[in-house]
Design a protein that fits this description.
This protein is α+β, with helices and mostly antiparallel strands. The chain has one domain: HIT family, subunit A, CATH 3.30.428. The chain contains 2 helices and 5 strands. The protein has a 5-stranded antiparallel β-sheet, with helices on one face. The protein is globular and about 35 Å long. The N and C termini lie far apart (about 30 Å). The model has no long low-confidence stretch (mean pLDDT about 95).
Length: about 110
C-alpha cells in the first residue's frame, strides 16, 4: 500500500532501527517509546488489522509471536516479563492501519492499561 508508513519502512523508503528481519516480518524500535524497550513487529505483507486476518494469512500471527519470543530473549526482557499489544480499529487505538504488535519491556506494567 503506497501511503502506509509501515509498508514504506518495509520497502526501506523510511529508515528504521531494525531489531529483526526475515522474509515474512520486520521488527524495529518504536520512534516514540513508551518503555525502556519498545519494539514494533509487523508482517511485510500489508494486512490492515487483526480484522483482516483469514485462512490465507493467519499463519503470520504465530510466526510473529515466535519472533517476539526470540527478540525478548535477545533483549533481556524475557525472564522478568514484557507486554505485547495489538490495537485494532479506531476505538482500539490503532493509528497505523497495518497489522502490528508492540513489544514493551524493561519496566513493570499496571492493569488496566487505560
Amino acid at each position: 500500500m503506497s501511503d502506509c508508513i509501515f509498508c514504506k519502512i518495509v520497502n526501506n523508503e523510511i529508515p528504521s532501527k531494525k531489531v529483526y528481519e526475515d522474509d515474512k516480518v520486520l521488527a524495529f524500535y518504536d520512534i516514540s517509546p513508551e518503555a525502556p524497550v519498545h519494539i514494533v513487529v509487523i508482517p511485510k505483507e500489508h494486512i490492515q488489522s487483526a480484522n483482516e486476518l483469514d485462512d490465507n494469512n493467519v499463519y503470520i500471527v504465530s510466526h510473529i509471536f515466535m519472533v517476539i519470543k526470540k527478540i525478548a530473549k535477545e533483549l533481556g526482557i524475557a525472564e522478568k516479563g514484557y507486554r505485547v499489544v495489538n490495537n485494532c480499529g479506531e476505538d482500539g487505538g490503532q493509528s497505523v492501519h497495518h497489522l502490528h504488535f508492540h513489544v514493551l519491556g524493561g519496566r513493570s506494567f499496571k492493569w488496566p492499561p487505560g
